[in-house]
Every structure is written in structure tokens, then in C-alpha cells.
Write a structure and sequence with these properties.
The chain has 133 residues and is mainly alpha-helical. It has a single domain, classed as Four Helix Bundle (Hemerythrin (Met), subunit A), CATH 1.20.120. It is 72% helix and 5% strand. Strands 1-2 form a two-stranded antiparallel sheet. Helix 2 crosses helix 5, helix 2 (29-48) packs parallel to helix 6 and helix 4 packs antiparallel against helix 5.
Length: 133
């Protein structure tokens, strides 16, 4: 049940991304990129977990992170990116691109070109398709 919630959360964020795109406002491009990335994050967590590793089944990313990184010496985003590279390598470059562009939109500049927003949505759609299980 909990894993399905990750997928639903991703679909919810995806719907918000679509609403922002349909608004046609360029001043929303930073939020298009941000919602695309966080949709992708939920989709990949849904796809990867539950995960059997180290003779243990991890039901969720949060459990995996807490057990494997109890001191939080590595960020959750880094751990997710590494898991995507290992278990869904075909989308790894797109996921990493979304991560980088979301970081830029949130922490460096909210002024995001419409081409970046369009690419973010395209990458999200590919990730959504490839993580649907």
C-alpha cells in the first residue's frame, strides 16, 4: 500500500506540472522543472522499492536510507541518484539532469528558459513510462 502512495504522489506532482505548462506563463518555468523532478523522484522510489539487498528487504527508500546511512553522511538525493544508476540505468542521465536543473531553479535562479522546462517535462514523461510497474 505504501509503495502505491509513492506512485500516486508522483502522479499528483505530474498533474501540477501539467497545469503549470498549460498556464502558458514563462514565469512558472522554475516550478515546472521542480515539479518534474519531484515527480520523477517519487516514480523512481516506487520502481526501486521494495528492494532486496544485503540479505534484507527494504520496503521503502526511507527505511533503506535510515539503515544504510544512519549518520546521514550521504544526502538522500545522492543515494537516490546512485540507486537509479544501479537499478534503472537507462534513465539515469535524465534523472541526473532533472536533479541538476531543479537545484538550479530552486537555489541559483528562478529564471528558467522555456526550453529547459519543456525538456524537463519530456524527461519526466520518459521516466514515468520506464518506472511504471
Amino acid at each position: 500500500m505504501k509503495m502505491q502512495n509513492k506512485r500516486l504522489h508522483g502522479l499528483h506532482n505530474n498533474e501540477v506540472c501539467d497545469l503549470l505548462i498549460r498556464s502558458g506563463k514563462d514565469n512558472c518555468n522554475d516550478w515546472i522543472v521542480t515539479t518534474a523532478f519531484y515527480s520523477a523522484l517519487h516514480f523512481v522510489h516506487h520502481h526501486i522499492f521494495p528492494l532486496q539487498r544485503f540479505q534484507r528487504i527494504y520496503r521503502s527508500f526511507e527505511i533503506y536510507y535510515t539503515v544504510q546511512y544512519p549518520d546521514h553522511e550521504v544526502s538522500k538525493h545522492t543515494v537516490t541518484r546512485n540507486l537509479v544508476k544501479k537499478y534503472i540505468s537507462e534513465i539515469s542521465s535524465k534523472y541526473n539532469w532533472l536533479f541538476k536543473e531543479c537545484y538550479n531553479a530552486r537555489y541559483k535562479t528562478y529564471l528558467v528558459d522555456h526550453r529547459i522546462a519543456k525538456t524537463a517535462k519530456e524527461y519526466l514523461e520518459d521516466i514515468k513510462i520506464r518506472t511504471n510497474k
